[in-house]
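Entry 14. Structure prediction run on the chain below.
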Amino acid sequence: MITTVTFDLWNTLIQDTRENGEIRAGQRISRIKDQLNNHQFQITELALEHGYQKCIDHCKNIKSQGLDLGFPEQIYQFLELSSPHIYAKLPFKLIQMIENIYSEIYLEYPSKLHNYTHDILVKLKSSGYKIGLISNTSMTPGITFRKFLFHNKIAPLFDALIFSDELLASKPSTYLFEHALQKLNSSPFQTVHVGDQLETDILGANLSGINSLLVNKDITTDEFINIIPDKYATDLSEVFSGIESLNTP
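Output returned:
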C-alpha cells in the first residue's frame, strides 16, 4: 500500500530554460565583481566567469560520485578557482555578501512551477498521502529553494524537504532516500519516488527498494534497459493515476 510520495524538483515540479540560467550566471558574476572591486579586491568578469565554469565542472565531478558540496564550500571553490588564494584575504562580511548575491539571484530570476504542480500536491495531500521532496541542488542552495517553495505557497504541502547540498550527498545515493524515509516515517515498499531522470531519480529509488515513477515525455520505453521504473508517465498530470495504480492488485 503506497502511503508516501517523494518528488524530484528540477524538470519535475519546476521548469526552467537555458536562457534563464545564463541570466542568473551573468548577474551573479557581474554583481560579485562589483562587490569585490568596491572592497579593493580587483578582479575581472573574465576571471570570475572562468572560476564559475570551473566550479560547475568541479560540482559535477563531485555529484558523479554520489556526493555534494555544502554551499559555503561551493562559494570557496568558486572564488579560489577565479583567483587563487583570494578567499583567505576576504573579510567575513564580504564573504556573506557574496554568498547572499550568489543564492538570492535565483529568487529574482526563478524557475516556473509546472502547470500541474499545485494540483497534484493538493490532490495527494487531500487523499491522505505523505509528501516529500528529494532534490539535487546545483548552483542554488537548498535554503533558497525553501524560500522559493514558500513564496509559491507549496512548501506547507510537503512533510519533508531534502536537498543534496545540506546532506553532502546527491542522487542516486541511497543516503538521500533513506534520510527521506526516516523523516517521513515511511518504509520503502510504502513509498514511490517521482522524477524525470533515469540515472538519478529512478536508479536511486530502485537501489533504495522504493517504487519509482518516471515522468519524462522525451524518454521512451525503449530506453529502459538497465534502469527500469515501476511506472512511466509522459506528464505530471498523469502521475496521480500512476500512483493509484500501484495500489491496485
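Residues 18-108 form one domain.
Filed with the rest of this week's runs.
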